[in-house]
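Complex 185.
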Amino acid sequence: MSLPIVLLILAAALLLFGVFTLVPVYRTYRGKRLITCPETKQPAAVELDSIRAALTLLGDESPRLRLTNCSRWPEKAGCGQECLGEVERDPKACLVRTIVADWYRGQSCVFCGKPIPEVTWTEHRPALLSPDRVTVSWKDVKPETLPDLFATHKPVCWDCHVVQSVVRERPDVVTVRPDREHLWS
Ligand SMILES: [Zn+2]
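Predicted structure with zinc ion bound:
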């Protein structure tokens, strides 16, 4: 077998290994997560070094995890990262997008009453209505505050969030018909 063919086979093998072994690990550990800080027992938002987790598979049987960011950093940047144990037990359950999707699932918009569509990264994202009746997108709040917000806020669909934002920011260009006011109060 000639050298170019051997190199071609090796390259193809490496490519297949990357696609079927490293990429799934990278996808598993990317994204923001909400964990309970072992020190404070309070929610904290963390991110993992997903590239490192995938590459450590080249030498180990299981990926080695390490934080790249935490909402308690830089003050606690030297912590022992004990929260990684929670991530290792169930990497998907603590993903922010999993937690958000679980909360909205089965809920209806507090304004229009329509069911909130399944939360995805690409579609319009739903919002939250605060106790003082201001809507805010869940993407615009700190992830570590989401557990508290879910306890005190109500679900709002994207359409109503947009309408409420315009009403709030440009009341001069919006006229709310009296027969619709009850929907917004
Ligand atoms: Zn709505």
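Residues 97-184 form one domain.
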